[in-house]
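By convention, the token line describes the chain's fold. To illustrate:
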Amino acid sequence: MTTSASAPLPASVLEALARYDTPTICNAMEIVAPERRLIGYTVKPLVCPFPTLPPMVGYARTTTIRSVLKSGLSAEEQSKRRIEYYEYVGTGFGPRISVIQDIDGPDVGYGAFWGEVQSNVHKALGCLGVITDGSIRDIPQWAPGFQALAGSIGPSHAWVHAESFGGEVRVAGMTVRSDDLIHADSHGAIVIPYEVAAKLPEAAELCGRRETPILDIARSKEFSLEKLKDALKRSAEIH
């Protein structure tokens, strides 16, 4: 792994964000950036083979792939493209998260770009995991601790190859640009604008405080509708 530029945010901010699950970050975003309430996160289900892994927070490395059609490049050109791709993934500020859009249309997921080899290579290059609407495979041989959110699980890689990298991609309804800050766990992923990232931990704590009186009464053996009404009122007064 190499680094060619200073990260736009202190590592402490990313570490603080990683203490919360992605739904909590989404709740916090509703407070600090309400204009993004309908955008910037995955809205379609993704498979997560490793649901017990902690949340990952990192900068996006974007790629498009296809597998139904064979690459039109010669073997030499394909080799050169592969090295260029790995250089892109392994440089810049980190940690990084690979975000890959499968552009095979109705055949999305036909061939798996991800498996034992790519998960281990990308982990070595400084990636924390992958978010893709394509397919993945080799789950038992997957790189330990490398997270995956994928459109499907399949057996073959068909003619899979990287079509482009470094541009804008759209995965499960989430639009991502290279170097966007991503927060993801088994629930899905969200893009965090740099300018609000440092505000999210405090907002997440506020969300927790507002939920506490409601949860306390809901879990109590002395629950009643009147007590719920009172808890909702007290929750709304917490700032």
